[in-house]
Amino acid sequence: MATANHNLSDYDLSKVPDASNMCFGIVVSEWNPEITGALLNGAVSTLEKHGALPENIHVKTVPGSFELIYGAHQMCKNDGYDAVIILGSVIRGETPHFDYICQGVTEGIARLNATNNVPVVFGLLTTDNLQQAQDRAGGKYGNKGDECAIVAIKMAKF
Q1: Active-site option among 6, 50, 73, 97
Q2: Which of 7, 22, 95, 99 has the maximal Cβ count within 10 Å?
Q3: Cα 101–116–9 angle (5° rounding)?
Q4: How far apart are CA 84 and CA 86, in angstroms?
Q5: Active site includes 97?
Q6: What is the CA angle 140-130-134, rounded to 5?
């Protein structure tokens, strides 16, 4: 569904399970910190809103979006999480680097979901410019972090 037709922060409260007995890992990229920080704030506040205890939400940072794969993999195999969320922001530039990073992260997270017992929620913004990222990190289209938290709760209960 196109973001223009759906606010990332809108969801049906009645369809969200209680998260009070769940533990979540969040891996967040340090690149584009004004965006990833907003995504992280959205995810954490939404998890807590649905009962997750602050001590059961563990956040780790990685330098860039490509490293989200490694961070998520380590959380999946070592820490007993019910779900892991990756949060990052890649903004198109003048070189094909954007395409390689976006494709690599997408394939890496898909592989983790196919081979692990812990769901990994894809929260990588892939935008053409900073304004589009801001619009999806608490701006006019809501916050992708909120959406990722809801997905993580639902997948943990799956």
Answers
A1: 97
A2: 22
A3: 60
A4: 7
A5: yes
A6: 25
In whole angstroms, what is the distance from residue 38 CA to residue 134 CA? 9
Provide the pairing of β-strand 83-91 with 142-143.
unpaired
Asked if 68 and 86 count as a contact pair (C-beta separation under 8 A), the reply is: yes
* Residue 148 backbone zone (phi > 0: left; psi -120 to 50: alpha; other: beta): alpha
Instruction: Copy the structure tokens of residue 47.
Output: 């998890």
Instruction: Note down pLDDT in tens along the chain; length 158 residues.
Output: 456 667 877 787 778 999 999 999 999 999 999 999 999 999 999 999 999 999 999 999 999 999 999 999 999 998 789 999 999 999 998 888 999 999 999 999 999 999 999 999 999 999 999 999 999 999 999 999 999 999 999 999 99
